[in-house]
Backbone:
C-alpha cells in the first residue's frame, strides 16, 4: 500500500515535470519564432536564439539540439496544431460553404495569434534539410487536402443556375485551392486588426470572395475563349520605330524578372504558395 502511494507520487511528479518541460519548450519556440521572423533563419545562431528567448545557451541545448531542430519543431507543431484545430471545428458542420468559412476562420485565428510563426512558415519553408522538409511537406499536404476537399464539394454543388458548369476537373480544383491559400497566407503581410477588424471580419471577406467565385455561373467571355486576342479589340498598326504594347509589356516583364532574379529571397518566397 505504501509502495503503491510512493509509485503514484513518483509518477505524478514525473508527469508534472514533463508538463512543465513541454510548456517551457513551447514558450521557447514562440520566442524563437519572433527572432527568426525578424532576422531570418540564416541570420540567427544558436547563441542568438538562446539570447532572444532569455535562456542560457546550455539551457537552450536541453530543449533543442540545433537551429534546424528549432525550425523543424516550429513547422511541425504549427501544422499539427492547425490541422487538429480545423478538424475539430469541422466535426459538426456539413454544408460545404460553411465548412470553408470554418477553415478560413481557423487559419486566420492562428495567423492573428501567432503572426511570427506564420511568417516563419511562409518564408523559411525551404531552409530545412531534405529529410525534414519531406516530413513537413506531408503535414502540409494533409492540411491542404482538407481545404481542397471542401473546394471540390462547393464546386460540385454549383450555383443551381441552368448555365452553371459544375464539371471542374482535379487540376482546376487544385488551382482554386492554391488561390484560396494565396489569400490566406499573405494576409499576415497586410492584416492589422485596428484597420481591418477581427479575424471574423477578414474571414467573412475572404470566404465571400472564394464562394462567390466558386458558385457563380461560369460564362466564358471572349477574352477567356481566345486568350491570344489583343486587349482592347483589334490590333492597331503603329508607325515604324514605335514599340507596340506587346514590346513594352515584354520589356517591363524582363525588367521585373531581372529585379526578382537579383533577390534570391524573393525568389524563394514566390515559390511558396501554401504555408
Residues:
Amino acid at each position: 500500500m505504501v509502495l503503491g502511494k510512493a509509485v503514484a507520487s513518483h509518477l505524478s511528479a514525473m508527469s508534472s515535470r514533463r508538463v512543465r518541460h513541454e510548456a517551457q519548450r513551447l514558450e521557447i519556440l514562440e520566442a524563437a519564432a519572433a527572432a527568426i521572423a525578424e532576422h531570418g533563419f540564416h541570420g540567427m545562431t544558436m547563441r542568438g536564439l538562446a539570447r532572444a528567448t532569455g535562456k542560457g545557451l546550455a539551457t537552450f541545448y536541453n530543449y533543442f539540439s540545433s537551429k534546424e531542430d528549432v525550425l523543424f519543431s516550429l513547422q511541425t507543431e504549427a501544422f499539427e496544431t492547425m490541422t487538429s484545430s480545423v478538424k475539430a471545428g469541422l466535426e459538426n458542420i456539413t454544408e460545404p460553404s460553411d465548412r470553408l468559412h470554418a477553415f478560413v476562420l481557423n487559419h486566420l485565428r492562428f495567423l492573428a495569434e501567432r503572426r511570427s510563426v506564420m511568417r516563419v512558415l511562409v518564408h523559411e519553408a525551404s531552409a530545412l534539410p531534405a529529410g525534414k522538409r519531406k516530413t513537413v511537406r506531408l503535414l502540409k499536404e494533409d492540411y491542404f487536402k482538407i481545404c481542397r476537399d471542401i473546394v471540390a464539394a462547393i464546386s460540385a454543388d454549383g450555383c443551381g443556375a441552368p448555365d452553371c458548369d459544375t464539371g471542374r476537373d482535379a487540376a482546376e480544383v487544385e488551382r482554386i485551392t492554391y488561390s484560396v491559400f494565396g489569400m490566406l497566407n499573405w494576409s499576415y503581410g497586410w492584416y492589422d486588426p485596428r484597420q481591418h477588424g477581427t479575424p471574423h471580419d477578414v474571414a467573412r471577406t475572404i470566404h465571400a470572395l472564394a464562394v462567390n467565385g466558386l458558385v457563380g455561373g461560369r460564362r466564358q467571355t471572349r477574352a477567356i475563349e481566345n486568350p491570344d486576342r489583343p486587349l482592347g479589340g483589334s490590333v492597331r498598326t503603329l508607325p515604324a520605330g514605335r514599340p507596340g504594347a506587346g514590346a513594352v509589356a515584354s520589356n517591363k516583364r524582363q525588367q521585373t524578372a531581372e529585379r526578382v532574379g537579383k533577390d534570391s529571397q524573393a525568389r524563394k518566397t514566390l515559390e511558396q504558395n501554401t504555408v
Summary: The chain is about 70% helix and 0% strand.
